[in-house]
Amino acid sequence: MNTSFKQFSNTMNTKIMLILSIILIGTSTRLHSEPIHHEQQAIQLGSSFLQLVDGQPFGITADRFVYLLQLRLGLKQIFYGSPTAEKMFPYKDKKYTLKEMALIEIKEEKLYKELCSQHADFEQQEWQEIEARHAEQLTALRDNLAKASVDIADYLLPFLRYIQPIKKQILPLMSESCEKRGRPESLLPICVGMPDETEATYFKQTITSYKQLGLFCIDLIHFLTDMIYSCPKARAQFEQQRKTDVTTQSIIDSTAE
User: Fold this and answer.
1) Are 223 and 173 in contact (CB under 8 A)?
2) Residue 3 pLDDT > 50, yes or no?
3) Global confidence as pTM
């Protein structure tokens, strides 16, 4: 590589790094609707159906309450990560949480958009390198997105089968949770509302970015939080059970709110 090209490349990289530093300063470390802490104040879901099934043998029992806690814990580990679990999503020889992948994607989109707004300031060769770099970044992100969507869809399949008999009653609760949290456009109730056995296919076909994947997980974490909060009788049964059951005690310790 000759000296003039090295100088040219270094000048372009300096421009990009300057723009990126400005973007990083102005970019939130949270996704839209993500709580400041891992938990946001739970919302009471005003459903007569929940009041009917809360704590009942045919409805939300202590064991089913445990299942909701464990499902939420698993989703939190996927999204936020865990000190005891390996991060799930590979990217450029490292592994990241779902939240980290979504923020990497958002920053790349913002950087390219800002560079496009300053297109006239770059020489033709500079711009070709910018476009090549952006294409490389997108390829690296998209290469693993399909697998990430499949992995999360597979993780959610037991939950979808679990709620299948009461899907008609669950969907309004999901919509209520999303609307009260400022996410009326959420894919969660739309996906779950698909005909039985097609939900996972719709999910994998519809999710086209890590941001969408992250928001879907946040919406589901919020819904589970609201469900748990809205079932006080099942919680009381669970609390009673944990007093005498070591296994249940370990579950409440690991899913502490």
Assistant:
1) yes
2) no
3) 0.82
Retrieve residue 249's tokens.
Answer: 């005690």
Beta carbons within 10 angstroms of residue 29's beta carbon: 9
Task: Tell me how far apart the alpha carbons of residues 106 and 214 are, in angstroms, rounded to a whole number.
Answer: 11
| Residue 134 host element (H or E) | helix 124-163
Describe the crossing of helices 98-117 and 210-229 by its angle, rounded to 10 degrees: 140
Q: How many CB atoms lie within 10 A of CB 169?
A: 15
**Residue 247 confidence (pLDDT):** 59
* The one-letter amino acid at 65: F
Token pair for 80: 């936020």
pLDDT in tens, 24-67: 444 455 665 554 434 468 999 988 888 899 999 888 999 999 99
Residue whose tokens read 């739309």:
190
Six-digit token string for 143: 């290469």
Of the candidates 215, 229, 220, 98, the one whose C-alpha atom is nearest the C-alpha of residue 159 is 220
Instruction: Report residue 234 CA to chain centroid gap.
Output: 27
Q: What is the Cα–Cα distance from 193 to 202, expressed in whole angstroms?
A: 10
Q: Is the per-residue pLDDT at 187 higher than 70?
A: yes
Buried b vs exposed e over 223-237: b needs ≥16 C-beta within 10 Å?
bbbbbbebbebbbeb
* CA–CA gap between residue 88 and residue 96 (Å, rounded): 6
**CB 229 within 8 Å of CB 176:** no
Give 131-140's long-range contacts (Cβ < 8 A, gap of 24+). Answer: 133/16, 134/108, 137/108, 138/108, 140/91, 140/92
Coil, helix or strand for 209?
Answer: coil
